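wait is this the right file?? whatever heres the structure
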């Protein structure tokens, strides 16, 4: 196994001493030709709250809204932006530059991706539900029941869905139902992509 040390916090004195010690030991071990029997990683992830505060400053300038912010090991930052009229590439580039400028690579190395959520991704925010009012959606409940219909209304507590079903196989009569679901009952909701 290789010995890995991520040296990301150069300003921390304890980390500097540890780094220098371990670096010298790795060099000695490699010279002797022995395998290092363990793996070691030393770094601290950037807090999501810190990224959110930076993003909120840029969000306040326009019509975009945050769908999700995540920071994964190795400081892989992903920011999902949306807009009631759709997010443009220039919106993503502007946000990327803003975040990049606001973070210091000398003290915390990171990888940054700013994008819009995919059309096939489930909704993550109330604003996405509001954006898709009067559109066809697929809803999966926590009991794994699947419902398809028009998203009629959205509140802070849940949604109202208009579904159309056929009464019987032989009877062509269609029945319209308005179904109210709380967000506690919903596992996921996705917009239906209609090709005309």
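ok assuming it is, sequence goes like this
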């Amino acid at each position: 196994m290789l010995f890995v040390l991520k040296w990301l916090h150069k300003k921390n004195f304890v980390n500097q001493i540890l780094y220098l010690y371990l670096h010298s030991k790795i060099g000695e071990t490699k010279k002797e030709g022995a395998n290092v029997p363990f793996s070691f990683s030393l770094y601290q992830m950037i807090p999501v709250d810190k990224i959110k505060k930076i993003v909120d400053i840029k969000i306040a300038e326009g019509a975009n809204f945050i769908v999700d912010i995540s920071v994964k090991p190795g400081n892989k930052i992903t920011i999902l932006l949306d807009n009631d009229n759709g997010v443009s590439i220039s919106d993503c580039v502007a946000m990327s530059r803003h975040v990049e400028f606001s973070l210091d690579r000398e003290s915390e190395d990171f990888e940054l991706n700013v994008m819009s959520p995919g059309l096939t991704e489930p909704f993550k925010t109330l604003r996405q539900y509001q954006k898709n009012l009067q559109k066809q959606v697929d809803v999966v409940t926590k009991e794994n029941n699947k419902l398809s219909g028009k998203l009629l209304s959205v509140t802070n507590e849940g949604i109202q869905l208009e579904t159309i079903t056929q009464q019987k196989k032989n009877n062509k009569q269609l029945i319209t139902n308005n179904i109210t679901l709380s967000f506690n009952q919903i596992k996921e909701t996705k917009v239906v992509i209609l090709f005309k």
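The first strand starts at residue 65 and ends at 72. so i think its the right one actually
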